[in-house]
């Protein structure tokens, strides 16, 4: 067993908190924590960089783990490897398709509070029954879960 796994087991046995990114099993969603984050073709600094992301908060889907590296997929379907310390557990999502309406209640006939264009990124929470609370820089509303990328269809979030 690798050293880091022993370390995590030892820390957990002492009742200390283990970082959430180290505990999960893929697939799961994260966001970019750093101002700049390189995606690489393999799990190591010796692999070439295929993308440089300069969008803090962009949602990513973790699809595999290898030590301190995470194989991720971005909203466009591009896959590659990133260091775990570049990623954050803060859940974000991106509007996809067309302009989506942000409503004051999770219902189709609820008042429209805001509209968000494709590509807009915001924090996502409180997903249930096909609706999620979506907050873009303090302007929030419920959006249809099918209009954002960053959650699984039917996924519930508290």
Roughly what percent helix? under 10%
Percentage of residues in strands: 35-45%
Strand order of the largest sheet: 6-5-4-1-7
* Strand tally: 14
Examine the coordinates and then state which fold CATH places here, giving the name of the CATH topology of the largest domain. Answer: SH3 type barrels
Low-confidence stretches: 1-18
In N-to-C order, the SSE pattern is HHEEEEEEEEEEEEEE
CATH class of the largest domain: Mainly Beta
Summarize the main sheet: 5 strands, antiparallel
* Rg, nearest Å: 17 Å
Helices, by number, come to 2
First-last Cα distance = 35 Å
Average pLDDT for all residues: 89
CATH architecture of the largest domain: Roll
Oligomer: single chain
- Integer tally of domains: 2
- The CATH superfamily of the largest domain turns out to be SH3 Domains
